[in-house]
Amino acid sequence: MRDIRGVLELAQESGVAVGHFNVADLVLLKAVFSSARELQVPVLVGASEGEREFMGVRQIAAVVRSLREDSDFPIFLNADHTHSLEKAIEAAKAGFDTVVFDASALPFEENARQTREAVQALKAINPAILIEGEIGNIGTGSEIHQFAQDLSKYLTTPAEARQFVEFTGVDVLAPAVGNMHGMSQKMVKGENKKRLDIDRIAHIKKAVRVPLTLHGGSGTDDDDMRKAIAAGINIVHINTELRVAWRSGLEAGLSAHPNQVVPYKILPFAVESVKQVVCARLSLFNGVRQPPFEGECAVASIERKQHALSQETPGLMR
Ligand code: G3H
Ligand code: ZN
């Protein structure tokens, strides 16, 4: 099995992107893992500082490692948005495969200085670990925001990207290219989409030649996503869409069984709801058009096709 570096190299060669999905519990992890297996594509699981605190740093690392080893399947774990060296070291020692060291709220020079220090410290713990650095401003919070913020003046330039990568030695770069964390109310309803600056991605890619990550993937226009991957994005992060699906699936489970108290009879509703999102996103990132697979991902794919048809020809498939 390839390691995460090998998986990213293959993604670059094949013009696809690795899906990264945040998890905060076993429902989300189960949905992510089973979707990736049904589609037979590698996957990254992310846990932010808050998600790690809730699940336990060493505990989530042990669960993901056991899934990978027991099934011989390429599932990897990322310490997402890690703001301090102390927390980054904790994750590296627990066996995380990648760390997003995020000092992007600081001025550029200070961000670069701290990120370089983190790269050196983390590689000393595990030389194979991949470190991602972040520049520009893409907002915070994988939540539903009342309005989408205008972050257009904080976009990353190719020159900044090159300077940052050369100085810090990061393995992966997360630029600001029109993306942002979270979704507006309109995005949740599908009335508005995030749009990406594709030319900027292509210019940054030319300037740095390391894998690029697109954060804040929830609610992004599908065509922009395809073009962004073709322009050089190698990892796409999705969180808010999963959280929305998790909540609505849970609500469906509770209302389908108003008197039920057995968790494993209610929670499968949430797993299936999250799987719909993960299957759709993984199919898009990996260019899966004709589902050669079985299971829930195939069901999700048929439902999506019906939905697309009903949008194109109103009234045909209600
Ligand atoms: O690191 C996590 C993400 O960038 C997720 O962003 O909640 O907008 O999908 P999102
Ligand atoms: Zn992010």
Description of the molecule:
This protein has 318 residues and is of the alpha/beta class. Helices cover 53% and strands 14% of the residues. The chain is globular and about 60 Å long. Mean pLDDT is 93; it is low at 307-318. The site of glyceraldehyde-3-phosphate has 15 residues, from strand 3 and strand 10.
Give the SSE map.
Elements (H helix, E strand, L loop, with lengths): L3 H11 L3 E5 L3 H14 L3 E5 L1 H7 L1 H15 L3 E8 L2 H10 L3 E4 L6 H18 L4 E5 L9 E2 L12 H11 L3 E3 L8 E2 H4 L9 H11 L3 E3 L7 H10 L1 E6 L1 H17 L6 H23 L10 H17 L6
Parallel strand pairs: 1-2, 1-10, 2-3, 3-4, 4-5, 5-7, 6-8, 9-10
Bound molecules: glyceraldehyde-3-phosphate and zinc ion.
Glyceraldehyde-3-phosphate binds next to strand 3 and strand 10.
User: What is the first-to-last residue Cα distance?
Assistant: 44 Å
> What would you call the shape?
globular
Low-confidence stretches: 307-318
| Helix and strand pattern | HEHEHHEHEHEEHEEHHEHEHHH
Q: Tell me the number of helical segments per DSSP (H or I, 4 or more residues long).
A: 13
Give the cofactors and ligands. Answer: glyceraldehyde-3-phosphate, zinc ion
Structural class: alpha/beta
Mean pLDDT: 93
Give a quick account of the main beta sheet: strands, pairing sense, barrel closure. Answer: 8 strands, parallel
> Could you estimate the helical fraction of the residues in percent?
40-55%
- Cα Rg: 19 Å
Strand order of the largest sheet: 7-5-4-3-2-1-10-9
The percent range for strand residues is 5-15%
Number of strands: 10
